Amino acid sequence: MTKFHLGWFTNFSNPPWNTTWAGDEGRTWANGELHVDFARSLERACFDYIMLEDSSMVSDAYEQTSRVDLKYGLYAPKHDPVTLVPMLTAATEHIGVIATCSTSFYPPWLLARRFSTLDHLSGGRVGWNVVTSSEDRAAQNYGMDKLAEHDQRYERADEFVDLVKQLWASWEDDAMVLDRESGTYVDHTKVHVTNFRGKYHASRGPLNLPRSPQGEPVICQAGGSPRGREFAARNAETILSAAKDPAAMKAFRDDIRMRMEKAGRDPDSCKIMFITQPVLADTEADARAKVERMAADVDSRIESALGHISALTEIDLSTYQLDEEFPELSTNGHRTTLGDFLSYGNTPRSAALGWSMKNVHYVGTPDSVAEQMGETMDFVGGDGFLITGSIGRRYVGEITEGLVPALQRRGLVRTEYEHEMFRENLMSF
C-alpha cells in the first residue's frame, strides 16, 4: 500500500465543551496548554504537522446577528494562531506547525519577517497557510469597507507571495561571517536590496534578519476554486482539500498535479492532504452507534451548519425556509465551500444535514479504519490525510494511540522522523 503523511487541522479556539468528557477545557483553552499537550501527542505519533486555521471576525451574517456564531463558537472566540506557534515548537522537537495569515490584511514585509523569525525560533519547523480571506466583516476590522473581488484577491496574493519569497532570499545563507580578524559580523555584499514594486505591493527590502533554517517556511494553501487551484499549483508545498469521497480526492489531486506541471513544477514537491474525521470504537457496531449519536442533534447541526456557511459566504441563509429549494446562489467569499455545501442538497435542511457530517469518511475499529484509509490512498495515489475533530484528550488519544499504531503496523505512516526540519520530513516520501 501507498505510504502517506498525517497532519491535523485545527485552530487556536475552544474545543467542544458541552460533552461528558470535556472537563473544563472550554474555559481554560485560551492559555495554550491544551494545545501544547495536543502537539506533544501528535509528535509522539509522528505527525508531519499541525495546521492552525484562522479568521478575523465575529460573524453576524446569519440572521444579521452574532447569536449563532457565539452560541456555537463558530468563528469566535479565537486567538491569533501566530502567537501560539512558539509555545508549540518550544514544547516539541520535530513536528511542523503551520499558521494562517491573510494576504489581504498583512503587509508583506511584516509577514516575511515574522515567519522568518518563527522559523529561526523553531529550528526550521514552521509553515505559512496563505489565505486571501473571504468575509467583508473581517475586512472591516482592518479599516476596509469590503474585500476585493474573488479572483483579484488571488492576483494580489500571487504578487504578495512573490515579494515575500524575494524578501526571504534577501540574505544569502552565508551572509553572517563573524570574521574576528576583520571585525566583520555580516558581509554586506551578501545582503541584497529587494526593490520590489508591483501592481499591488512594494517593498525596498532587505529583511533585517538572517535567512531562516529552512531558507523559507513551508507554504500551505487551501484554494479549491479554479483560480485558487492555479494559485496553489504555483506556490504551495502542501494543499488542504475537503473532497467528499475517494473519487473527488483523486480528481482534485490529478488536477493539481497537472496544473503544477504546466507551471513548471515537480508535482511531487507538493503534498495534498485530505481532511477527514475518523470515528473509532472497539467494535464496528459501537463506531456506527457513535455516528448515529453525532447525527442525532438535528436542530443544532442544521443551525450550526447554516451559520458556518452564512459566515463564509455572507449570504444570510436564515432568510430561506428549511424545506424551500435554494435559488441560484453566488458569493464573493468561499465559492468552493458554497458549491460543496449545495452538493449535499437543494434545501437548507438537506444541505446542512449532509454538510455537517461531510468529514466523516471512515468509521470502525482502528484496524478497519486503517485498512480503509490505506485503500483510499492507493486509489488516490497519495499524499496524506489531515485529521480534524476535537483536540480534547479523548479523541486525540483515539487517533494517536489507536488509529496511528494500526497504520504503522501496515507500514502506511512513519514510525520516526527522518529529518530535523519540516520541509525535509514532508518531502521524504
Task: Characterise this structure.
The protein has helices spanning 25-28, 33-44, 67-72, 81-90, 108-122, 136-141, 150-168, 226-235, 246-262, 284-296, 298-313, 335-342, 348-355, 366-380, 393-409, 422-426; strands at residues 5-11, 49-53, 96-102, 126-131, 176-179, 184-186, 196-197, 202-203, 218-221, 238-241, 271-276, 279-280, 363-364, 384-387. The protein is α/β, with parallel strands linked by helices. The strands form four sheets. The protein has an eight-stranded parallel beta barrel, surrounded by four helices. The protein has a two-stranded antiparallel ribbon with strand order 5-6. A two-stranded antiparallel sheet has the order 7-8. Helix 7 (150-168) packs parallel to helix 8 (226-235) and helix 9 (246-262) runs parallel beside helix 14 (366-380). The longest helix has 19 residues, at 150-168. It starts with a strand and ends with a helix.
Blueprint (SSEs and pairs):
Blueprint: E1 5-11, H1 25-28, H2 33-44, E2 49-53, H3 67-72, H4 81-90, E3 96-102, H5 108-122, E4 126-131, H6 136-141, H7 150-168, E5 176-179, E6 184-186, E7 196-197, E8 202-203, E9 218-221, H8 226-235, E10 238-241, H9 246-262, E11 271-276, E12 279-280, H10 284-296, H11 298-313, H12 335-342, H13 348-355, E13 363-364, H14 366-380, E14 384-387, H15 393-409, H16 422-426
Parallel strand pairs: 1-2, 1-14, 2-3, 3-4, 4-9, 9-10, 10-11, 11-14, 12-13
Antiparallel strand pairs: 5-6, 7-8
TL;DR?
The chain is 42% helix and 14% strand. α8 crosses α9, α9 packs parallel to α14 and α14 crosses α15.
Helix percentage range: 40-55%
Radius of gyration: 22 Å
Mean pLDDT: 96
Give the beta-strand count.
Answer: 14
Distance, first to last CA: 13 Å
Main sheet properties? 8 strands, parallel, barrel
Poorly predicted runs of 5 or more residues? none
Number of helices: 16
Task: Tell me the strand percentage band.
Answer: 5-15%
Strand order of the largest sheet: 1-2-3-4-9-10-11-14
Given helix and strand content, the structural type is alpha/beta
Envelope shape: globular
What is the helix/strand order?
A: EHHEHHEHEHHEEEEEHEHEEHHHHEHEHH
